[in-house]
């Protein structure tokens, strides 16, 4: 008697293979890469801006604790400070994950064991909880370390660039941190122009904080600052640091980058 067993077996294998492809493609969203994530300290932690020079500013607007530290794959010895990432976790990765993406800014370094992973996000406790399904954040916190997906996205803060003069600045040494930088978010160059000089490149001191020596008898305020992004776009904040500037003061500019990559 004739049998259709080989044909049926082929069809069964074909269906199973197609189902595997569909499931695999649904696991990893298009455009995303794989990483792991942990969270800062406790569920109410806003995270830190320490290694990027943002200090406790990350807890309030425009960051609002939606921040992350990263291992060297992300931190890049400080040049990755300010970059924005969309991250999410699916129920295939953890049953308490919502699958809804959140956007976080890289503001700190996750050193040591974080570099045992190819890409590691150490997300603020507040932001980490937003990866969970409604009412199930506590279960996600209990997991401690989870698999996630991530992709680089443009920063968009709905405000202009903010310059914070470092507390260690003085008439001979000027240090400034750039905050709320749209677009790439991370900077490859910061330059300063005094009222009576040409553009002078500043040195990256720590993360998003740049410094330069000043000759107060020759280089007088107001100071203009020119920022160049990772993709070599530039914006100029003219006369943004006024005469009589003070260490620790914050000065808001009237410019920002386009909010795209």
Automatic annotation (TrEMBL):
InterPro entries: Expan_Lol_pI, Expansin/allergen_DPBB_dom, Expansin_CBD, Expansin_CBD_sf, LolPI, RlpA-like_DPBB, RlpA-like_sf. Gene3D superfamilies: Expansin, cellulose-binding-like domain, RlpA-like domain. It holds the Pfam family Expansin_C. Keywords: Secreted, Signal. It comes from the Eukaryota. Residues 49-160 form the Expansin-like EG45 domain. It is found in: Secreted. One of its GO terms (biological process) is anatomical structure morphogenesis. PROSITE patterns: EXPANSIN_CBD, EXPANSIN_EG45. The keyword Ion transport does not apply. GO terms for cellular component: extracellular region. Residues 1-27 form the signal peptide. Residues 172-253 form the Expansin-like CBD domain. Belongs to the expansin family. This is Expansin-b2. The gene is EXPB2_2.
């Amino acid at each position: 008697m004739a049998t259709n067993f080989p044909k049926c077996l082929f069809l069964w294998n074909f269906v199973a293979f197609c189902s595997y492809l569909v499931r695999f493609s649904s696991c990893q969203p298009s455009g995303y890469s794989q990483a792991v994530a942990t969270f800062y300290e406790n569920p109410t932690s806003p995270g830190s801006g320490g290694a990027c020079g943002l200090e406790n500013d990350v807890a309030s607007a425009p960051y609002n604790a939606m921040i992350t530290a990263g291992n060297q794959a992300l931190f890049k010895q400080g040049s990755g400070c300010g970059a924005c990432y969309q991250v999410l976790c699916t129920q295939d990765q953890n049953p308490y994950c919502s699958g809804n993406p959140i956007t976080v800014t890289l503001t700190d370094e996750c050193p040591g064991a974080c570099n045992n992973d190819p890409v590691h996000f150490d997300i603020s406790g507040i932001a980490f909880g937003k990866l969970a399904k409604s009412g199930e954040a506590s279960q996600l916190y209990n997991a401690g370390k989870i698999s996630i997906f991530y992709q680089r996205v443009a920063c968009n803060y709905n405000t202009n660039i903010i310059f914070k003069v470092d507390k260690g600045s003085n008439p001979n040494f000027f240090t400034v941190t750039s905050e709320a930088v749209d677009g790439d978010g991370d900077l490859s160059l910061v330059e300063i122009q005094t009222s009576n000089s040409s553009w002078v490149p500043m040195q990256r001191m720590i993360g998003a904080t740049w410094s330069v020596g000043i000759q107060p008898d020759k280089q007088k305020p107001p100071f203009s600052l020119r920022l160049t992004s990772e993709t070599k776009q530039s914006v100029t904040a003219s006369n943004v640091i006024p005469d009589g500037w003070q260490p620790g003061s914050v000065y808001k500019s009237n410019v920002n980058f386009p909010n795209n990559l």
